[in-house]
Automatic annotation (TrEMBL):
Residues 405-431 are annotated as: Disordered. Residues 20-404 form the Major facilitator superfamily (MFS) profile domain. It holds the Pfam family MFS_1. It comes from Corynebacterium kalidii. PANTHER family: CARBOXYLIC ACID TRANSPORTER PROTEIN HOMOLOG. It comes from the Bacteria. PROSITE patterns: MFS. SUPFAM superfamilies: MFS general substrate transporter. This is MFS transporter. Coiled coil: none annotated. It is found in: Cell membrane.
Amino acid sequence: MTTSAPGATGTRSPLSSTAVVALCMFVVVMEGYNLITFGITVPLLLDDPALGLDPATAGLIGGVVYAGGLVGILVSGPLADRWGRHRLMSVAVGVFAVGAVLVALAPNATVIGLARVLTGIGIGAAFTSAMTLARNHAAVNRASLVITLTTAGVPVGGVLASLFGIFLMPHWGWRSNYWAGAVLTLVILAVSLACHIREPEEVRNTTLSPSRRLTSLFAPSTRVVVIFVALASVVNLVTWLGLNAWLAEAMRSSGFSLTQALTLTFVLTGAAVVGSWFTATAGDRVGPARVAVVCAALTLAGLLGLLTEPASLVLAVIFVGLMGIGGHSTQNLISAAATNQVAPPLRGTVIAITNAMAYVGSFLGPVVGGRAFAAGGSPSLFALYAGCAAVCLAMTVGIVAGGRRTSRGTGHRGSGAGSLGPDDARIPDPA
């Protein structure tokens, strides 16, 4: 696989592992900004008479970015093999920057929808590349922490989008949030283009073809975990990204002011960032799958709390905070559990599968949420997502059980290479 960075690299030293993880995190920050900013702007989009949006149409537009993301994930594997993950990541960042500009210039809902598809394609390819690059540069027994550091960029980006929304949109309208995101994304793109990344030897030197990498994941030693990871990713992201798209409008319709509703979106993403540090540390100590069970339970508890329709802002903050910690951390820990079960050359493939299923859920979340909200308001919305959170909780329990069976079958945790010979796997993955 080609691993050179964009442009000439002969006079540049490769980035350290720490710097690679930092760069990947900043890329994901802008992915998070460009993903979540739509949910931040939904109240003003619905109020814009020139667009003619209703909740169901807004939900569809909120979902198409994830349909585009799924396309980006599917093309990222072949393109990464041809160009290298760093080059692909940089190109993908440029693509979703263009998408942000097009939304800011959009005259109608159709153009917004098409621009969001383009944004999604770039985000999907960039996210898979960034996660794989970061995971491949992780120190031994730090998979949960590194994946959390990287994917923490999503809620950090959401926090930025919320803050920009609070301070920019009342004065300059919804378009200002997209212009701000486009400018920041182009800054990160310039930094990425100036860097040179070299992937570890055990990742670059593999005899596995793309099709062999895929079939190897469904060997007897890993197939149960891979299936539960895929299912958990779908239902968890239905809830998590659905909430990111609809929380502001749902809370406004529940009687909170626009400023309070936007503040609660800040709480959702802020709690995700803060909580993820603690859950990542716990995941590296006791196992990411076990901690994922706890996080899935927190998400469900927060949603059940919102179903009581709290009139108090303090109670709403508590319930939304539980959802923020649970929803984001659950996905991080699912990804960490998956990568701990496979050999290094298979990490990119298992991350692609996890992300692909997550983007299926991410597409469905805003769409079905929009229909639920149109049909029954915020109670229907929160009931739908609570049901999905309950299914996710069951799937995370299945991941724990499947991991125990894998451990008994292979004699140690984390090999995940039951059907691979030494020439294929190269190095067993650390637990």
